[in-house]
Amino acid sequence: MTSITLPAREADVLLETDVVVCGGGPAGLGAALAAARTGASVVLLERYGFLGGNFTAAAVGTVCGLYVRSAPGSFDYAIGGVARAFVEELVARGKAIGPYPFKETAVLLYVPWAAKRLADHLVIEGPDSGNITLLLHALVSEVVVDPETGAVDGVVIASKQGPKVVRGRVVVDATGDADVAVAAGVPWIMGGPGERQFGSMQFFMQNVDIAAAMTAGLGALSEAIAEHGGHLTRDGGAVIPTFRGGEVIGAMIRLTRDGAPLDATDLFDLTYGELEGRRRAEEAEVFLKEYMPGFADAFLADTATQQGVRETRHIVGRYTLTGDEVRAQATFEDAVAVCAWPQEYHVSGRSTDYVFLPDGATYSIPFRVLLPSAGPPNLLVAGRCISADHHALASCRVMAPCMALGEAAGTAAALAVLDARETSSDRIVLGSVDPGAVRTELVARGAILP
Fold first, then answer.
1. Which domain holds residue 80?
2. pLDDT tens per residue, range 118-176
3. Are 368 and 439 in a shared domain?
4. What is the mean pLDDT of residues 338-360?
5. Is residue 31 part of a domain?
6. pTM, rounded to two decimals
């Protein structure tokens, strides 16, 4: 590949703040709200025209990882704090229901539009919104690193008016793909086929006879796929009611190229995935209308704004959470989140494999996985790009624990800023933050920790 040298450019500093949160998905929302409530000023950057990430842009339709099964048919919250408050507000608005049993665990069903508007409300009108400045259509394109301190000095965003810079004392990378960390020189890894999850494409069907479809259940869908759906990309899946008359979200599409997972950091693979996802949605529409009860008069209304991405880059952190620790229900002194979701593998063929924890069991996630092993001292990561191996990420990548990890990152960021103010320090080193202080603040705000 040939290359050219880009000319040096000046970029205006648009804003200066305590904490810059890059990405407005579950992790970024958790980080921004937590940092703001702890007393820091926050700038939240989001590449789309709305917040929510997998809640909204990927239209997942189910929140996974919220619950732990305490006994057959009985579920408790595994995750509290911002995530629990968010979903309980959706339930109170009549836009979500849970726990909804799924295999050996449970999920929360929700309306993506309602999640989008709730995120708007919390960031613009909520109790912590006074400390948050939101910039939509703000794609993070690169970072500026101070050559003397090694700290991130500014986050560069691409805009219609050219490059602009947002400066913050602490930066939280909640981009999902570790875009900020990679640009700042943080070590990272990404697995190949068999060590990286397949992505997906959700789609909306309308004019469905919901009663007939739900009475038939997932069993009827699985049987239909087994008998007539050999051409489909998955041997299972779900049609998820959105609580709007006649509408469901289809979760039936696996995005592959020649049997391998796509690289969602590659422009060519991203383009292929969007086009292939829409083609496969039309294929699923035809199948559902012919073989699934309740769909005879239904039609494909739309696909999600973007393909759903499960796994790309992971940073190399001060500690790496492993799949063995997930299965062993590990606990850590610096735990800032817990998770009970099974290891869920979308890695080979058409099947999805699950490894469940025992009833009532959780494992914890340490603060150190948010801290890069090398690179800027004022950078944290949150969400599915944390320092976890492929087998641990198979569990902790889902939305509820990602939101909890964002809450932990935002809390740590704010505490570091407040401490620097008190000590009149010009330099922030997040590795020096006391995890005990982070844990204390999280528990005071309703987090569930060991």
1. 13-193+312-444
2. 999 999 999 999 999 999 999 999 999 999 999 999 999 999 999 999 999 999 999 99
3. yes
4. 96
5. yes
6. 0.97
CB atoms within 10 A of CB 425: 12
CATH of the domain at 174: 3.50.50.60
Q: Which residues contact 421 (CB under 8 A, 6 or more apart)?
A: none
Residues 320 and 274 in one domain: no
Say yes or no: 188 and 73 in one domain. Answer: yes
What does DSSP say about strands 238-241 and 299-303: parallel, antiparallel, or unpaired?
unpaired
Say how many residues make up the chain.
Answer: 450
Residue type, 333: E
End-to-end CA distance of the chain: 50
Distance of CA 231 to the CA centre of its chain: 30
Strand locations in 326-400, DSSP E? 335-339, 343-348, 351-355, 363-366, 379-381
243 shares a domain with 382: no
Return phi, psi of residue 239, to 5°: -120, 120
Do you find a cis peptide bond into 342, omega within 30 degrees of 0?
no
* Cβ neighbours for 1, distance < 8 A, ≥ 6 positions apart: none
Average pLDDT along the chain: 96
Q: What is the DSSP letter of 172?
A: E
Q: Which two tokens stand for residue 365?
A: 């996630």
Q: Is residue 3 part of a domain?
A: no
179 belongs to a structural domain: yes
Cis peptide before 99 (omega within 30 of 0): yes
Beta strands across the sheet bearing 248-251: 238-241, 248-251, 203-206, 299-303
What's residue 72's pLDDT?
Answer: 87
Residues 245 and 370 placed together within one structural domain of the fold: no
Residues 232, 287: contact at Cβ < 8 Å? Answer: yes
Residue 204 belongs to a domain: yes
